[in-house]
Amino acid sequence: MAFTWLALQGFGGVLAVVQRELVDRRQWLTREQFVEDWALAQLMPGPNVVNLSMMIGDRYFGPRGALAALAGMLAAPLAVVLLVAVLWSQIATHPVAQNALRGMGAVSAGLVMGAGLRLMGALKSNPMGPAACGLFALVSFVLVAWLRWPLTAVLPLLGLLACGWAWWQLGAGAEEPSA
Contact, 172 vs 162, CB < 8 A? Predict the structure, then answer.
């Protein structure tokens, strides 16, 4: 039921809603666990929140929990999307509908930014350090938003650099004493 509720609240990006529900309200995860699980969910193919729900369902209830979380994430929203598609086909060209869609995009972007700001506290314990994380985020934004690089090029490039930096920070890049 928790994941059905999450799925029905989400429109566009659901990061803010998911973080609030799983960390603040239900306390199934700490902020640090949420950041780590969310990062892993983003690397896996498919919708991030569906991946996260299946990971949590499996963690607490095994394969049945993963399937229940998946069903919760997809069943009710599928019915809603089909209904909205039928209704939207009737009003899609109306200027009011177009303006409402633009407004919802701005609200969704604001929710994602707000969730990101709330999760910044979890970066204190990140091995890369808050400054490096902020720098990687800034460089990602500049490359994608301003320079119009494709995300499929930015993610592997910066992902490898970030992994290398984290590896170095964890001490794997330090010289091992010789025997």
Answer: no
